[in-house]
Amino acid sequence: MPRAKIPRKSTTIDMTAMCDVAFLLLSFFILATKFKPPEALSVTTPSSVSSKVAPEKNVVLITMDKEGKVYFSVSDVNKQEKKDIIDEINTSKNLGLTDAEKANFSKNPTAYIGVPFSMLKSYLDKSADQLKGVTLPGIPAQDSTNNELTDWVRAAVGAFQGGHMNLLVKGDDAAKYPSFQGVIIAFKKNDQLKFQLVTSPVSAPIGSELEKVQKAAGNKVSE
């Protein structure tokens, strides 16, 4: 007697629970993600084939925009050094800054200094919201007889004394040489002869020696 054939049925999996979990995870990541805030100062840096990543700690950053204006800032994590810098500037220049005004520089994560000392008190008296859209004149640095960036660099060197300071220069691709020359003069007057340039990384040209070196290094890491 032939065996009765049992009809085959396709396997069904209830995906309702998995979909619920997926949407819960998606909602969590959306709510927990911190988006990168817009840059307070927009600069188009020149391109380079360097693969070295700029440091994020112990950074003193000198920025030059396309108009040649010079700005000074310190990495957000170095709150004590920022406090020491503004204290030194306040004392040496006799600016009469209040504790609240000094705190605006020490705690404000987007505190670019881009004004001369004569305007510093009124600048630090404003909140971050009040400074949005305000055009800053920049730190005087092109006049060799009145290079105020020299004082900012001197204060930074003193604040990082005994530790390591990463001195970075971030210049717009359209910035002119006189601005850069003023920055270099400020560095030399403070015996700061080593600094790093912030650039936009690009791939090494195909067939170049640098590409071969990078490929060789990549193969060693993969092994």
Task: List key phrases describing it.
223 residues; alpha/beta; 4-stranded mixed beta sheet; two-stranded parallel ribbon; disordered C terminus
Write the SSE topology:
Blueprint: H1 16-32, E1 47-48, E2 59-64, E3 70-74, H2 79-93, H3 99-107, H4 117-124, H5 149-159, E4 166-171, H6 177-189, E5 196-197, E6 200-201, H7 209-222
Parallel strand pairs: 1-6, 2-4, 4-5
Antiparallel strand pairs: 2-3
Helix pairs in contact: 2-3, 2-5, 5-6
- Tell me the Rg in angstroms: 27 Å
Shape: elongated
Lateral strand order in the biggest sheet? 3-2-4-5
Oligomer: single chain
Helix content: 25-40%
**Biggest β-sheet description:** 4 strands, mixed
